[in-house]
Structure formats: structure tokens, C-alpha cells
Amino acid sequence: MFIVRVVIKILILSFLMMAVIQINSCSQQKNTLSLSQLFDNRSGAELVSYVNYANGFDIYEVDNIKKLMIYNPRNNDEVLATYFFTDSTYQNSYKPSNDFLITPLDSVAVFSATQLNAFSKLNILDRVIAISESEYIRNPTVQERYESGEIVNLAGNGIFYLEKTLEVNPNIIFYSPYNMAEKHPLAATEITMIPFFDFMESNPLGRAEWIKFTALFFNKEAQANTIFDTIVSKYNKYRELALAAESKPTVFSDKYYSGQWFVSGGKSYIAQLFHDAGADYLWKDNQNTGSINLDFEVVYNKAHNADFWRIVGTYTDGFSYDKMVAENGLYNNFKAFTDKKVIFCDSKESSYFETGTLEPHLLLADLIHAFHPDLIPDYNPKYYHLYND
Predict the structure, then answer these.
(1) CA–CA separation, 273 vs 345, rounded Å?
(2) Which pLDDT does position 64 carry in this prediction?
(3) What class does CATH assign to 238-387?
(4) Are domains 103-229 and 238-387 of this chain identical in fold?
(5) Cα dihedral 129/135/136/137 (nearest 10)
């Protein structure tokens, strides 16, 4: 009887050991699954991007794993970076790698005031622990946290602080790479640096859609989708209203500066806004998505009889026609100037560069109110104001 009990115990222990080994084996096997293969094994029809307007990135999802693809803004066929996301529930199911991020992240450094606006909209400014060029940021919450020491400054006058960055050690750094050929000074920290190309989008809704990009790192996708869908709905309502207008007033943009006039290209962000606001942009046939540099005479010959003149800038104590003509007496030869049809945006007072990206519907409405005031007579502009006195 004793021998039988011993044999039974041995068999039970053997069974338990084999079960443990099998479980560990399965766990190890799951942990070696490649995230790339997970998506590569799906057909194109199964993978539909969550991104509809922006060209700079795509988001896909398979089995609770999200895939972010970031493209070269000058060549959308070139993938600059790929990242995979999941929460802690699934992190042990796949092989760990530098491009595999467990969300939500705890901390981030944000190097653009434009990007900070998305954090504000998503109520995650508490995750921001570092910024750059603090003197140019107007967001009151960010300013308050900076003054209290909860946020530190990692750059000033174009110089990035390597040692301080290592000390702060954020999970990631969001930055805007204006020069693709140059390596970022903070790349040496080996902190994950995420390029943020919203400023390269030529579609106003495409720029606003980058809120989905930000949301992905903090499990705020549902909130971002709600915010963006509201923006799209409002934008399209204004657009339909303006495109139905019978008249299409002519408009040109920007000013003469340092011997050149930087005119927005015909495929640019502002050109799209002009079109959607029911205006005839004089450089609409140009194929550039950025600015083109022209001589004063070239702009004058084409635009001196234009109906409207759009300008973004800032003046001490506000805009006036006297201040404009004091800058350049030749401005007085433009019909839009003499007719007092300058549409001016005070970039400093309105926080245009900080908040305008996520309010394209308001930028559009402002322009419609200037071009077609009868369409929205009771509207109160936020960014662009027509100075007619």
C-alpha cells in the first residue's frame, strides 16, 4: 500500500512538472512572436488605416496591437519609422523591441507649441515634463507648470541641453524635424525621438488629424476621434456654405521681406483654406505645397488689383495701415490696401501657431466672414480680422 501511494505521488508530481514545462514553453513561444509578422500576415483588405486626411502617417490595428507608420513628408512612399503599441495586458505576448511601446506612456518632452495643443485638448498636459523655447509658449497650464518646476526647459536659442535631457529622461521626445538631413542633437541620448510632421500637411483637416497621432501614445484614441470628427463636421458645413457663393473674390498673401516675397504655393495649406472659403487665390495654379520666393515686381504685377490681402504677423500695439505703409511705401499701390481689405491675423495675440492647427473650422469661418460677410453675419472672428477702417 505504501509503495502504491509513493508511485501515485511520483506520477502526480511528474504530471505537474510536465504541465509547468508546457506552459512555460507556450509562454516562451508566444513571447517570440514578431509584431511585423503579425501585420505582414494580413492581407491589404484586412488592414484599413484609421487616418483619412493626413498624408504623414497611418494607424492600423490587429489583435489589440496598433501599428503606427510615419512617412517622409517629401516622399510618402518612404517609411521613416514604424512603432507598435499595446497596453500591459498584452505586452508579454510578443517579442520586446525598441519599436514596441507599452501605453499609456508616463512622460514626454514636447518641442513644439503646436503639439502641446493636442495634449491640452486630450487633457494629458500632466504627462508633459519637458518643453523647448519656453518663452514662446502661451498655454497657461504649461506656463504654470513650468514656473512651478513640474516642466523643465530643454532648449533655448536653438541650443538643446543634452545633460538636462538625460536627467529628466522622458519616455519619448516629440520633435519637428525641419531639416531632414541633420541628425537631432538629442539623438545621442538614445531616448526614443518621434518625428512630428503636422506642419507639412497641406490639407487643413490633415493637420488637425495629427491629434490621433498624439492620442495613440496615451490610449486616448476614442477621445481624439470624437474631437476630430467634430472638427470635420464643422469644417465641411462652412466649406459647403462658402463654395455655394456666387462671387469668388481674388486674394493674395504675405508680405515683402528681406528682398523677397514668400508667396504660398497653389497646393499649400493656406491655398486650400482660400479655396474652401470661396475665394480665388491668384497662385492657385502653382504646384508647390510650400512657399515660393518671388520678386516684388512679380507679385505686384499679378496682385495689385486683387480684392483681398491676407497677412499673418504681429505689430506692437496692434495692426494699422499706417504701420504697413511705414514698412514699405509701395504697399500703397495695392488695391486691397487702399480699399482697406487687408485680412490680418495677429499671430501673437491669437496664439495662431499654437492653437490654429486644431481649429481649422475657425480659420475657415474667419476667412468666409471676410470674403462673404453676408453668409455668416453674426460670426465673431477669432484669428483673422478684416481691417476696413
Answers:
(1) 14
(2) 87
(3) alpha beta
(4) yes
(5) 40
Give the domain ranges of the chain: 36-102, 103-229, 238-387
**Which amino acid appears at position 52 of this protein?**
N
> Percentages helix, strand, coil for the chain, rounded to the nearest 5?
45, 20, 35
The gap from C-alpha 251 to its chain's centroid, in whole angstroms, comes to 27
Per the CB < 8 A criterion, the answer to whether 216 and 108 are in contact is no
- Evaluate if residue 360 carries a pLDDT over 90: yes
Contacts of 199 (CB under 8 A, 6+ apart): 114, 176, 207
Among 116, 94, 91, 119, smallest CA distance to 103 is for 91
Question: Given a cut of 80, is residue 160 above it in pLDDT?
Answer: yes
Helix (H, G, I), strand (E, B) or coil at 52: coil
* pLDDT (0 to 100) of residue 11: 47
Q: Mean of the pLDDT values across residues 355-378? A: 98
- When computed from its CA atoms, the radius of gyration of the chain, rounded to whole angstroms, is 27
- What secondary structure letter does DSSP report for 162? H
Question: Peptide bond preceding 73: is omega within 30 degrees of 0, i.e. cis?
Answer: no
**CA torsion 378→383→388→389, rounded to 10°?**
100
| Beta strands 172-175 and 192-195, pairing class | parallel
Query: Which numeric CATH code is attached to 103-229?
Result: 3.40.50.1980
Q: What is the pTM of this model?
A: 0.89
- The closest of 239, 235, 383 to 311, measured between CA atoms, is 383
Q: Which alpha helices (H) appear in the chain, and where do they start and end?
A: 2-31, 35-40, 113-121, 140-147, 162-168, 204-208, 210-216, 221-243, 269-276, 296-303, 321-327, 335-338, 352-355, 360-371
Band (14; pLDDT cuts 50, 70, 90): low
